[in-house]
Write a structure and sequence with these properties.
By secondary structure, this protein is an alpha/beta fold. It has 16 helices and five strands. It has a five-stranded parallel beta sheet with strand order 2-3-4-1-5, with helices on both faces.
């Protein structure tokens, strides 16, 4: 619960709200929500301890969880839209590409988001007020960690989803398929900021045919929330139960005993080395050559958890960025015979800074507009 509360707090602190210049005191709503979240975090430890024996407290926590997840979804949407607007409107040819975001649509969107934010603030205030009846004991919450990617991920991906990461893929495969690996379990960290393709790279190697044959057991675990050893163990076991930690760790050790396994821990934020070692100790009964791939935005996590040197992802080069954009924006990935459109597109791609997520987002937008019939530049010239 604390992890999602921190997610929302950081989302409210982001530049997304400034980017939209939300109306009707939306900035006030955001500040109010931040203060309320800080107050609620101080009571979470006591509330969660009492929830098992008190249905009213349990229901209060459920209401809090619901509003926090709704706020997280809203802020995710704001961040994505801010990224798209920023890419398009801050370049030298913004006037020509205003097709992507009409002024009227921006105003409507801003009002809708402001209304939703205000409703979330009202719900959060109501929940905060209701907690007074429980007389929770305040505890000093843990320092705000760096929480980044939020969405749940999964193991499947199509091979053509990865562009420009062949070198990194080959390095990871060489580690995974190393027949001379002597450690009971080795860890390969993939490090990079959001949108660079850490998860996609992990998906590609996880599904590689040689990897599938090499490991007797494979598990994909999207960590995302708080780094909880019991929850991660249960995900590896593919079980949801009310078992005590002692039973869970026994089940986990039995599962991996005598097997060469590959486990992906996607979206790791935890920077507490002690918690990491607790999990690692439970994963030492596998066959030599067992592997764990960790994806993270934190270089500290990469260094702390890694057996191998971290695979550091950087932005795509210009040629690869352009090829990716064309594959998303134009039919069959072929460049159109339109000099001005190509010039505009090149400027937009440069502003993406080699970030695959941004390139894909803008490319899809261009493709959608082409499908709407806006194939010539007359529409651009009228703006």
């Amino acid at each position: 619960m604390d992890a999602i509360a921190v997610n929302v707090f950081q989302g409210l602190t982001s530049l997304a709200l400034e980017e939209f210049k939300l109306l009707w005191n939306a900035k006030h709503d955001a500040e109010s929500m931040k203060n309320t979240i800080l107050a609620v975090r101080a009571t979470l430890l006591d509330a969660e301890a009492r929830a098992n024996n008190n249905h009213q407290v349990s229901f209060w926590l459920k209401r809090l969880k619901d509003v926090l997840y709704d706020a997280d979804d809203l802020l995710d949407g704001l961040s994505t839209e801010a990224l798209r607007r920023g890419i398009v409107t801050r370049n030298k040819v913004a006037k020509k590409v205003r097709i992507f975001f009409s002024k009227s649509n921006q105003v409507v969107y801003n009002f809708k988001m402001a209304d939703k934010l205000r409703e979330l603030r009202r719900r959060l205030d109501e929940i905060d007020n209701d907690k007074k009846q429980f007389h929770f004991i305040d505890h000093t919450p843990r320092p705000l960690p760096v929480l980044e990617e939020r969405k749940q991920t999964y193991s499947f991906v199509q091979e053509d989803e990865i562009i420009g990461r062949e070198k990194e893929k080959d390095v990871i495969l060489s580690y995974l398929l190393d027949g001379d690996a002597e450690s009971s379990v080795s860890i390969i960290p993939i490090v990079g900021f959001g949108g660079l393709g850490k998860t996609t790279l992990a998906q590609i190697v996880y599904n590689h045919v040689d990897v599938q044959k090499h490991f007797g057991l494979q598990r994909w675990v999207c960590v995302s929330d708080e780094f909880d050893v019991k929850q991660i163990a249960q995900k590896i076991l593919e079980q949801k139960s009310s078992k005590e930690m002692e039973e869970v760790q026994q089940d986990l050790r039995r599962l991996i005993e005598g097997k060469k396994f590959l486990i992906v821990l996607d979206n790791v934020w935890n920077e507490d080395v002690e918690i990491w070692h607790k999990l690692k100790c439970l994963l030492t009964t596998g066959v030599e050559g067992s592997m764990i791939i960790v994806t993270t935005r934190s270089e500290k996590v990469g260094r702390m958890m890694g057996t191998y040197s971290p695979i550091i992802l950087e932005g795509l080069d210009g040629e690869t960025s352009w090829n990716l954009f064309c594959s998303m924006a134009f039919e069959g990935g072929r460049e159109p015979n339109d000099k001005e459109l190509l010039e505009i597109s090149n400027e937009v791609v440069k502003k993406c800074g080699g970030v695959p997520l941004a390139i894909r987002a803008v490319g899809r937008l261009v493709y959608d507009k082409v499908l709407e019939g806006l194939r010539d530049l007359s529409y651009f010239k009228e703006l």
